[in-house]
Write a structure and sequence with these properties.
The protein is of the alpha/beta class and about 300 residues long. It is built from 12 helices and 8 strands. It has a single domain, classed as 3-Layer(aba) Sandwich (Rossmann fold), CATH 3.40.50.1820.
Length: about 300
C-alpha cells in the first residue's frame, strides 16, 4: 500500500525558497549551464518537471518554481491568486536570482505566465519551449471545467473534495497506467487540505471570458505582444489527445510563431510530461543544441 511519502524518491532535489515579501516561493535549482526556466500550470507543481530536471541537469541549469499557493510554496489565506500576480511574482523571482539568457519551458497556465514575464523583460529571455498551453482569452471553456466554476458547488468540489486534482489524474493523461501510486501521491501531495487548494480553485475561476473579468485584458495584451518574440527560437511540443488545449490551440500558436519547430505527439494528452517525458526531454535537448545561445541570445 502506498503512503503519502512514496513520491519523494521521484523528486530527489534540494528544496530552495525565495522570499517575495511576506510569502516564500519554493523552487528547484539543479545543474549548471544555460538556464532553463520551467513554469508549471494548474494543478501541477515543480514535481511535474522532475524528469526534465533529471534529463537536462548535466548540461543546463534547470530552475522550476512553484507559484505561490502551489507546490511547496506558501499558501496564505486571502492572497490575490490572480494571473497578473503570478506574472509579477515570476518577474521578481527572475530578477532576484538574476536569471539571464533564459529558455522558458511553459505548460498550461505556465505558458502565459512565463510569456508575460518574457514580455516584461525581453532582454532576459532567449528561447521558448511551449507545451499544451495558450496565451490568449479562450473562445470557450470546456464543460468539465465550467462545472468547477459554478458558485458554491464548484468551490466545494475543487477545494472541499479535491475533485479537480483527482479528476486530472485520469483526464489529463492518455496513458493512465503511467500515473502509478507514487506519481499520484506526488501530484496530489501539496493539495492536502482546503486552504492548500485555494490557488487551484482561483486558477479555475480566473479563466476569463468577458471583458470585465480581471484577467481578460492582461491576456489580450500578452497575445498582442507575442509577435515581438517571434524572431527568437521557439519549439512547440504538443500532446494531441488534449481535450482542453486542443490541436486548435497549437494551430493558433503556429500562426503566432510561424518559424517554430513543431512536434505533435499523437498518443499524449494534456500532461504531456507524464505521458511522454522520455520523448519530450530529447526534443528539448535537440532544440537547445540546434539554437545555441551565441545565436539565440540578444
Amino acid at each position: 500500500m502506498s503512503t503519502r511519502d512514496d513520491w519523494r524518491p521521484l523528486y530527489p532535489f534540494t528544496s530552495r525558497f525565495l522570499s517575495l515579501g511576506d510569502v516564500r516561493m519554493h523552487y528547484l535549482d539543479v545543474g549548471e549551464g544555460d538556464v532553463v526556466l520551467a513554469v508549471h500550470g494548474n494543478p501541477t507543481w515543480s514535481f511535474y518537471w522532475r524528469k526534465l530536471a533529471e534529463g537536462l541537469r548535466e548540461n543546463c541549469r534547470v530552475v522550476a518554481p512553484d507559484h505561490v499557493g502551489c507546490g511547496l510554496s506558501d499558501k496564505p489565506a486571502g492572497y490575490p491568486y490572480r494571473f497578473t500576480r503570478h506574472v509579477e511574482n515570476l518577474c521578481r523571482f527572475v530578477k532576484q536570482l538574476d536569471l539571464r539568457n533564459i529558455t522558458l519551458v511553459g505548460h498550461d497556465w505556465g505558458g502565459p505566465i512565463g510569456l508575460g514575464a518574457a514580455l516584461s523583460m525581453p532582454d532576459r529571455f532567449a528561447r521558448f519551449v511551449l507545451l499544451n498551453t495558450g496565451a490568449w482569452v479562450p473562445d470557450s471553456i470546456p464543460l468539465r471545467i465550467r462545472l468547477c466554476r459554478v458558485p458554491l458547488l464548484g468551490q466545494m468540489a475543487v477545494q472541499g473534495l479535491n475533485l479537480f486534482c483527482r479528476a486530472a489524474l485520469r483526464m489529463a493523461v492518455a496513458h493512465r497506467e503511467r500515473i502509478t501510486p507514487a506519481v499520484r501521491a506526488g501530484l496530489l501531495a501539496p493539495h492536502d487540505r482546503w486552504q492548500h487548494r485555494a490557488a487551484v480553485y482561483r486558477f479555475v475561476k480566473d479563466i476569463p471570458l468577458r471583458p470585465k473579468d480581471p484577467s481578460f485584458e492582461p491576456l489580450e495584451r500578452i497575445e498582442l505582444g507575442l509577435p515581438t518574440l517571434a524572431d527568437r527560437p521557439v519549439a512547440l511540443i504538443w500532446g494531441m489527445r488534449d481535450w482542453c488545449f486542443t490541436p486548435a490551440c497549437l494551430d493558433r500558436l503556429c500562426d503566432l510563431f510561424p518559424h517554430a519547430r513543431v512536434h505533435r505527439l499523437e498518443d499524449a494528452g494534456h500532461w504531456v510530461m507524464e505521458d511522454a517525458a522520455e520523448r519530450v526531454v530529447p526534443l528539448v535537448e535537440r532544440f537547445l543544441a540546434d539554437h545555441p545561445l551565441t545565436l539565440a541570445s540578444r
